[in-house]
């Protein structure tokens, strides 16, 4: 099949299974449903410890724990985050996984291959069975920083996103690390292909800002990008490469970066609570200087807003902490972690945004932006982060909440249900789910636990019994 026919086939059926979500459940109109039934503690098949609470019939195994060794003898870093699964030989899955490590702590793996030998983030590439047994493991992108999420690409690559603008040219960030020790600028996206080494070349035209996720639209070739700017407004972007990536076989630099705006409403504040069924006609404004040169080493707070402010000066919309994003049948679903209204009895979270989370749907074929869901209160959905989609048309939301953290499902009808609860980890209240992704054929849901001793987990069971 030639590449143009391949693209055409990929975009067929764009009005598919999520068509109902975009109008349902706004502001929590749909109450939680049972999903797969009540959750119970289940022992990890790796060592017998209880790490997850799951419905009856589901099993799991953790693997590739921080501190383990790769095949080359180097050490697996922590802060497991965004991840994607690709089909591998003999029914295996190839996982590419981020490590959200901040600060000038030194690169893991071979420092001679690192983008910045002083930066400790990057990606791992693993080949695993559908039961979470590791076959091969290796570092794949090193010397980057705060690799939070990203997205799988149709040409069998992962785009990894740096959620920072740290570098020797800007002031130190909240972590207290010394940016003067860094050798390169950070805040970019990087391509990590399967089957060959990552080039460690940033796609600078896609912007220098606190990137979170990337979602590829095969129809246009655009890469949709979210921004997680904790203390300030965030934007929803798209990068238009100079050549369609499927035709090029890779993601090229030198394209155009744009930011979403609402037609007829300059700087529309979509971080606030929305009415059920809220929908907007969207347009896009160009970012003239996606990779600004800073003079006089500005503060991190100034540098982290430099790209977003360009868009807002042209009328771009305001969001709160955009995190996970996924493409499904012509629609980009993306999460606003602190979007929405503060419910009575809930406490507004720290940072920009007063709510407990929104899920937005951007229809690439119509240019319409719709609210898919807004959390009515923390007990229903609490600060959603990464997101993926099942083959049957249900979203999986990873929580980053203040109390217990769940994997929640958002059905096509706009109903939220609990699928998995993380067993609290003593002395690690910040542990959270991240990087959920279904493996080949949908047999296994792979997910990460981002904790002081991070790990990946394979979950399998009677999926046919519920909406996933």
Give a brief description.
With 468 residues, the protein is mostly beta strands. It has helices at residues 3-10, 245-248, 300-303, 306-313, and strands at residues 40-43, 50-54, 59-63, 80-87, 93-99, 121-128, 134-144, 147-153, 157-162, 189-193, 211-216, 223-227, 236-240, 256-262, 279-286, 322-328, 331-336, 358-363, 368-374, 384-389, 395-399, 406-410, 416-422, 432-438, 444-450, 455-460.
Helices and strands in order:
Elements: H1 3-10, E1 40-43, E2 50-54, E3 59-63, E4 80-87, E5 93-99, E6 121-128, E7 134-144, E8 147-153, E9 157-162, E10 189-193, E11 211-216, E12 223-227, E13 236-240, H2 245-248, E14 256-262, E15 279-286, H3 300-303, H4 306-313, E16 322-328, E17 331-336, E18 358-363, E19 368-374, E20 384-389, E21 395-399, E22 406-410, E23 416-422, E24 432-438, E25 444-450, E26 455-460
Antiparallel strand pairs: 1-2, 2-23, 3-26, 4-5, 5-6, 6-7, 8-9, 9-10, 11-12, 12-13, 13-14, 14-15, 15-19, 16-17, 17-18, 18-19, 20-21, 21-22, 22-23, 24-25, 25-26
């Amino acid at each position: 099949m030639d590449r143009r026919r391949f693209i055409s086939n990929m975009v067929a059926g764009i009005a598919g299974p999520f068509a109902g979500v975009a109008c349902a459940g706004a502001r929590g109109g749909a109450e939680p449903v049972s999903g797969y039934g009540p959750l119970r503690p289940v022992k990890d098949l790796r060592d017998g410890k209880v790490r997850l609470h799951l419905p009856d019939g589901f099993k799991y195994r953790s693997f590739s724990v921080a501190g383990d060794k790769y095949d080359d003898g180097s050490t697996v870093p922590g802060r497991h985050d965004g991840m994607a699964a690709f089909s591998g030989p003999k029914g295996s899955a190839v996982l590419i996984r981020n490590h959200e490590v901040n600060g000038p702590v030194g690169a893991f793996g071979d420092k001679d291959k690192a983008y910045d030998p002083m930066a400790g983030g990057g990606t791992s590439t693993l080949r695993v069975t559908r039961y979470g047994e590791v076959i091969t493991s290796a570092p794949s992108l090193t010397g980057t920083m705060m690799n939070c999420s990203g997205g799988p690409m149709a040409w069998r690559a992962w785009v990894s996103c740096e959620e920072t603008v740290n570098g020797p040219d800007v002031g130190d960030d909240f972590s207290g690390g010394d940016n003067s020790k860094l050798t390169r600028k950070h805040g970019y996206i990087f391509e990590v292909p399967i089957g060959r080494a990552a080039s460690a070349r940033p796609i600078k035209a896609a912007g220098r800002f606190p990137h979170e996720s990337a979602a590829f639209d095969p129809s246009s070739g655009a890469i949709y990008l979210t921004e997680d700017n904790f203390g300030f407004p965030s934007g929803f972007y798209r990068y238009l490469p100079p050549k369609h990536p499927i035709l090029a076989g890779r993601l090229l630099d030198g394209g155009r970066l744009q930011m979403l705006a609402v037609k007829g409403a300059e700087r529309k504040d979509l971080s606030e609570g929305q009415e059920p069924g809220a929908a907007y006609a969207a347009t896009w404004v160009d970012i003239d200087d996606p990779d600004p040169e800073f003079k006089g080493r500005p503060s991190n707070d100034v540098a982290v807003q430099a790209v977003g402010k360009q868009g807002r000066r042209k009328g771009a919309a305001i969001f709160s902490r955009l995190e996970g994003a996924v493409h499904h049948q012509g629609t980009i679903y993306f999460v606003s972690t602190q979007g929405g209204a503060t419910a009575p009895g809930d406490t507004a979270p720290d940072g920009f945004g007063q709510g407990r989370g929104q899920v937005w749907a951007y229809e690439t074929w119509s240019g319409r932006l719709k609210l898919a869901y807004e959390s009515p209160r923390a007990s229903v959905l609490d600060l959603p982060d990464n997101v993926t989609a099942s083959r049957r048309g249900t979203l999986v939301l990873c929580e980053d909440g203040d109390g217990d953290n769940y994997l929640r499902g958002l059905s096509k009808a706009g109903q939220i249900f609990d699928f998995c609860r993380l067993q609290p980890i003593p002395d690690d209240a910040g542990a959270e789910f991240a990087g959920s992704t279904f493996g080949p054929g949908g047999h296994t849901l792979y997910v990460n636990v981002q904790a002081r001793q991070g790990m990946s987990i394979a979950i399998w069971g009677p999926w046919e019994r519920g909406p996933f």
